[in-house]
Write a structure and sequence with these properties.
- By secondary structure, the protein is an alpha+beta fold.
- The protein is 21% helix and 26% strand.
- It has two helices and four strands; from the N terminus they run βαβαββ.
- A four-stranded mixed sheet has the order 1-2-4-3.
């Protein structure tokens, strides 16, 4: 519906399915995600699987509450041989 928009996903609950569904249906190039990595308390395994498989991610340190390990993830879609740039 919004092909020129960049999604910002912040602290998605690891029990929710919408973050993975969002990534699976998103066709754009950049996703911004604030949360923990694989095995953390944000985003389910499917979400992290798609993010790891389809995107190259740069991690940016942000202010954190004690005991939390969240970061800003700037993820750019990985291009495969034969893909046309958008």
């Amino acid at each position: 519906r919004f092909p020129t928009s960049t999604p910002l996903i912040v602290w998605p609950d690891y029990k929710d399915k919408w973050p993975a569904q969002t990534l699976a249906s998103y066709r754009g190039d950049v996703v911004l995600y604030v949360g923990e990595g694989v095995g953390g308390c944000t985003g389910d395994m499917k979400f992290h699987e798609i993010l790891t498989r389809d995107f190259d991610t740069e991690l940016i340190s942000i202010p954190q509450f004690w005991g939390l390990h969240d970061r800003l993830h700037i993820s750019r879609r990985r291009r495969h041989k034969g893909d046309k740039p958008k």
